[in-house]
Amino acid sequence: SGRSPAPPAPAPMTSPKPSSETGGLFCSVGSPDGAISDGDLRGHVDSFLASLGERRDVLILPPDFTRFHSKAGTITRYISEYYNFTPRENDGDGSGAKDGRPPSTSTSSCSPSIQIIPALGTHAPMTPSQIELMFGKELSKKEPNPFVVHDWREDVVTIGHAPSEMVSEATRGMVDEPWPAQLNKLVWEKRIKRSEDGARESPPPLVVSVGQVVPHEVLGMANFNKNLFVGVGGVEAINLSHFIGAVHGMERLMGRGHNPLRSILNYASERYLQGELDLWYVLTVMGSNDETGEVETKGLYIGNDIRCYDLACELSLKVNFNLLPRAPRRVVVYLNEEYHSTWLGNKSIYRTRMAIADGGELIVLAPWVETFGEDERIDKLIRRVGYVGTPSVMEALEGDAELRNNLSAVAHLIHGSAEGRFSITYCPGRLTREEVESAGLGYADLDAMRRRYDVETLKDGWNTEANDDDGAEEEFYYISNPALGLWAVSGRFEDGSSGTPTPSYPPSSAKRGGTNLTFDGQEASDASGGVGGWKRTPDGSNSR
After folding, report:
1. Three-class SS of residue 185?
2. How many angstroms separate the CA atoms of 255 and 260, rounded?
3. pLDDT (tens digit per residue) in 451-471
4. pTM score, two decimals?
5. 88 CB contacts (<8 Å, ≥6 apart)?
């Protein structure tokens, strides 16, 4: 896979009594070469919850079905079972601890109320069948229903702002306005109450953010405070954060745990969340078993500050980052049932674009893809504008008020465009040729391509096929789940560039009414368009 040899596995670390006031790292266990059984996972979760003492009110923030393989559904179920909210179900792998100890049967002496808000961000709500598959039968049929649907357009409150100077620095002067820190109103209602003399209520509401750390196209690495400010955030924050990521450059962000956009979220966490919420993070690192290909838990990190995130990032880069020795001319990606839209399925583009050779081809096998956007408004915008490259998208933005009010869609269109460097062939099960090609993508028949690329027999990594013309073998690179990794060749990851000359792109102008968003005198910093970052043209005021 191109990974460097893994260092010796770190010794597991748990803290017997983390403090929500002074900060604490409760659990740090993981290795690229090992795996954490479901029995051990339950044991760590039970021990963590026991260390916090009794609770009356618990709010869990797991990801949605697009992170089905994160183990977040299983961990959410373990929390529910520990607090006697639902009966215990069998562990997924039927195992106890790896040293032969039986599975944990620890439960709390209290039975708090529990609510669960899947961190949808811009995604469509989970269906009942998805909830049952991810969180188990007991939680899915619990009455009253503990699951709360997050509406990123309506259900939020702005709790503060990151200063415009941070946004300007992250965007090389293109955006000069504060970034709004927004949360679902229910999350903000869990603030710790204090008496007149400043004493904290006891016990305070417990907020547990659960999720997977993995390379991400907007934040560099997924999860941690992204789960709050994006996963259960609001339209203004999500739009601006996605656009900041596009302007800064996807290829300068992916795989980097600390970057200017993450600094903005960290600022908001430190200023507005710490001390206000009893907030804990339960973070996993997932990887594939080298022999079976099955997804397994490689790491678990539990804490209430940035240390658990940093440690998870460190392991994720060892597990999920694939540095290839050469750039494949053809990459074939399979999208499983988690991907029903190109908004989700374009992970196949984001996660491979730093690996694909110039002039190469990306083939996306997408049996379940049936739409472009995750809601009707975004879907219409994608269909109308298309994945047509950064210059055309930015030109459309200039005179389109609806686009200017949906900057996350603009960022998505930039991220999903090949910018002419390679071709993208989508093979969807539920979209027509006309729909796909009108959105700026290539089309091929799914059945024909699945006969050519049999996902039941292909192995992740390098494969070969016979050339139709002369029978000579040609190699291609296969990826069975793009959500589990990031693929690159060394030159593109190290300097964030495509290795090709800088094209000139100075859009004439684009201003968003009532803000300081400008594009005058801007150009893409490399041939992959906006995804490689933006800079001022030579006559600009902040040339770099």
Report:
1. helix
2. 13
3. 999 999 999 999 999 877 677
4. 0.83
5. 81, 105
